[in-house]
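pinned: reference chain
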Amino acid sequence: AGLGAFYTPPFLADYVLDRVEETLPLREGVTILDCTAGSGVFLVGAYRRMIEKLPDVWADSGHSLTLSKLKNLLVNNIFGIERNDNACHVAAFSLYLTMLDYVRPCDLEAITTGNTDETLFPSVVGTNILIRDFFDPAALPDKFPPKVDCIVGNPPWCKILDLKSKHILDYLNNANKTPIGRDQSAEIFIWKSVYDHLIEGGVLGVLLPGKTFINETSEKFISKLSKDFSILGIANFAHFRKCLFRNAKHAAAALFLKNTAPEQDNRFWVYNPLLVGQPTNTSDRLWAIIVDRSDVKYHGQSHMIQQQKSGWSDAFILTPVDRRLIRYVDSMHETGKTITLRDLEKRLGLIWKQGDSERRSGIPPQFELSADKKHANYFKIHLNIGEFANTLFKPKHEIVPLPEAELNKATKGIKRAFSGRIVLVPRTADEAFYIEHPIAFSSSFNCITFRTEPKDMTEQEVSFLKALSLYLNTSLIRYLTALSSPSVLTDRPRVCLNDFKSLPSLFYDLNDPDIPVFLNQSEAAREEYIFNRFGLTGSYRKVIEEFVGERIFFKDGGIPDNATTAPDESLTISYSLALEQRLNKLNGIDSYRVRVYSDINRSLGAVEAQFIDPDIEGIPQKLPSVEEAIFQEYDRRGGNVFTNSCFVWNDRGNARVFLVKPLERYQWSVERAFSDSEVIDYSIMSSALTHWT
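pinned: its structure tokens
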């Protein structure tokens, strides 16, 4: 790999081609282009699929596919562009090997014995596989189609300047219709692909950085894309970040679109898989992607256009209950019930700073605290905080407090942040600490303080910072921080200053009566206080506590240790209550009852959601015979946990819906109860619609 290019594993190329074929089957007559062909993995996959669809590939009379048919299929349908000479020849060789899998022995014998003038392989390099810059304006060869039916591939993810291409700069300067985010090359490749090389009604399926859908810098790109084209689907491979491409730093995504203007009712899917549900080898490397339908959610494109950037980001990373809680907190701010930390910044004269390196801060690196646990300057050791509080463990050299001589070297823009009396927050946002002494810290930290010099700060200002550090450590704020900073859930956790500023503030000013109350409470009392102040109780509170206690450990491709263990009784009870409440809320009645059954031997759990007629006295009891019947019906219907881990069917005659899924802890959270309620409600509505039409 080089210049931002990562060679795509075949199983990932197969995933892209599978999704493309849901809209456009790859068969003879369909032209396909990979504009960054590399070693040809997408083209090889497409070519094989076209061969397999030929009617005479496995005819009853035996293998009857002629050599000329195979060659014509290749030269008439498969096209690629690649600037690397060696990669082009590898792509051609790979296509030849694929063709050999289908060549008849009699054709091979005729060629090797000289009984025919026909050559075995057609010439493709220079005709079908072009060695050139994709942005080179020079004319294409005569037989190379100016536009194709389908474009696939994995364009480079680097900055445009890193490609060292004059042609791409010329294209960018001459094309005012191509907004991109912070010089991202993948985005300009997509614009040229759809505008210049894809026929109207054609299909595009490409891999690109996941940050395209969440970064503010790409807002104009995704906004114009969604206004101009029909989005078919988006796959978020953030949880596979460490398993797809070796040495790749960014999370991957896949985009699928059709080159038509979007209709008002167009709906697209978003696929959000977790690594825990995928097959991996002993090195935790993926070797296939199994699509679980329960990981696929649908959204309206017109709604995304209205919401613009926030809508795409929310659809890309948030669950149904996350979106509900975000809207609730936002509404509190809109109605004046809360203010944000940004509002507080203006009121109190707060400053927010990110640490920096010696080049910009003026402080030598040996005095700079690090967030890296393996670093000699790991901040918790030197500050004697967290798990190192009150321990006898001592660092090899003292850098706290920062010596005055070193502090005086600090540049003007950063000196106040390094002078002490600050709230220090690692960009992972796991914790926040009030720090009294002068310290220097790297860009892995943010800090909050007052413009006032430390020695001139009032007791009220110090108390405010101490209370703020405790507030940032509460479950609610840790939850909201993760949701407001998309990279926490999709990439390496990095919280930006603007993410912090958007958080709600508990305090209104330095004289806020909440400050002394908060400082004098225990951690448990502070949690209770915050939830009550924000009106979050019951299932919503449980969702937040689950997030901080378990779900957050799925970040950065991680899997909690207990994710696949069987849920305990308290968890299934919380799940059942949340699901029941949500179903009753969705249907505007209080008549649904939820029961949970389990088959321990098969590690399966079942949910029964039954409508209880309020005019009938008593509630039907949970019967063992029902439990047995559920799993028998699950088998009869062909249920499996791999491609549909949330298997649902409707028993309309008895006014109930069944849902069967793995008996694994992460599947039985309250957050999952909200998602499952939508699945069950959809089944109820679909059944009712079928009944009345």
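why pinned: The chain has a mean pLDDT of 90. The first strand starts at residue 32 and ends at 34.
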